[in-house]
Specification:
Blueprint: H1 2-33, H2 38-52, H3 54-59, H4 63-66, H5 68-89, H6 95-102, H7 105-116, H8 123-139, H9 150-172, H10 182-201, H11 209-212, E1 214-217, E2 220-223, H12 224-249, H13 252-259, H14 261-274, H15 280-298, E3 314-318, E4 324-328
Antiparallel strand pairs: 1-2, 3-4
Length: 339
């Protein structure tokens, strides 16, 4: 009963994270159209969130001694890597193509679990990934404007690999020996990501006057500071916190598939708030993503005892009589995190 409630809570947190992350583009696009460089918006997002989480970083300063590799990996991959690779890729290939490649991460997570951790994955989880990726192709309309640019595709694949790092490192942070508090990991990840992005974005050249004015959101003037506040507090702080905790209550592969809903949520929000209407293939694709996410979530093996937080569920094995039994899931030693 406790395990079932934990998985339900984990699914709710994963959906909240997908909604928060999905809203980032809707808030960022008016700022970019008002004159801010995309990398400057990313820097403001990460640096602002790092400042908000600074008291949390101080409270968990012992993590610098206990989990330096985890913090560095989270900051470089989960924060700076995903952002930098994604924005670099969309400068060379269509946004839809880049987004689809980035959200191949759930399939890559399954590959990590199966071939690196050498743990079995259920057929339902694999089917969920296939459906989610196929539906996502319809949502982002991958068939419109595809131009083969090898470097652009490699950059988008780099964003996908960094997102794999997000899910895997979030799961590793919950190892049984000396658990790393997720809030502390996020705080230091944002600080490290902000430092890296400062070098990449060079914010001293930013047009700060944009932040003092307003931005147009489908004909409505919205204060730029309000959009920036949404990006920092909701689309970054809340998104990362709920995302990391959901990975610990579910599993990297399940949370990864649910994260595909970010593209659906982003598209719906853009329809409502920015007037970017959906067509029939996008609506069908969104429904397919939902089905895939549900199948993957419902395939999570049940644990027999113990709290769900910090455990990723059990892996099925074949018993002598042919029935399916469950065995505890093994973890990597400590020591991982959507634009």
């Amino acid at each position: 009963m406790h395990a079932s409630q934990g998985r339900s809570a984990g699914l709710g947190l994963a959906l909240a994270s997908a909604f928060a992350f999905g809203g980032s583009g809707v808030a960022a696009k008016p700022l970019i159209e008002a004159g801010l460089d995309p990398l400057h918006v990313v820097w403001l997002r990460v640096a602002g969130a790092a400042l908000v989480m600074l008291p949390v970083a101080w409270r968990h300063r012992d993590l610098l001694r206990r989990k330096p590799a985890l913090l560095a990996g989270f900051g470089l991959l989960a924060v700076a890597g995903v952002q930098a690779f994604y924005f670099a890729s969309i400068s060379r290939i269509p946004v839809g193509v880049a987004l689809l490649i980035e959200y191949l991460a759930p399939a890559l997570v399954l590959g990590w679990v199966r071939f690196v951790q050498r743990r079995p994955v259920t057929r339902a989880a694999a089917l969920g990934v296939v459906l989610a990726v196929g539906g996502l192709a319809c949502v982002v309309q991958v068939w419109s404007g595809l131009s083969f640019d090898l470097l652009g595709l490699l950059l988008a694949l780099g964003a996908a690999c960094c997102q794999v790092g997000y899910f895997v490192l979030s799961d590793q942070g919950a190892d049984e020996d000396g658990q790393a508090d997720p809030l502390g990991v996020i705080a230091y990840g944002l600080l490290i990501g902000a430092l890296v992005l400062t070098v990449v974005a060079r914010p001293w050249g930013m047009d700060r006057s944009v932040l003092a004015g307003s931005a147009d959101m489908d004909g409505t003037a919205v204060p730029a500071w309000l959009l920036l506040g949404w990006i920092v507090l909701i689309a970054t702080v809340l998104a990362y916190v709920t995302g990391v905790i959901s990975v610990r209550r579910l599993s990297p592969q399940v949370a990864g598939v649910v994260a595909c809903l970010e593209a659906v949520i982003a598209t719906v929000l853009a329809w409502v708030l920015l007037g970017e209407h959906l067509d029939a293939p996008q609506i069908i694709g969104g429904a397919v993503v939902l089905v895939g996410a549900f199948i993957a979530q419902s395939s999570t093996p049940k644990t027999t005892a113990g709290p769900v937080a910090g455990s990723g569920g059990g892996a099925e094995r074949e018993s002598p009589d042919g029935e399916r039994a469950e065995e505890p899931e093994t973890r990597l030693s400590a020591g991982r995190p959507t634009p």
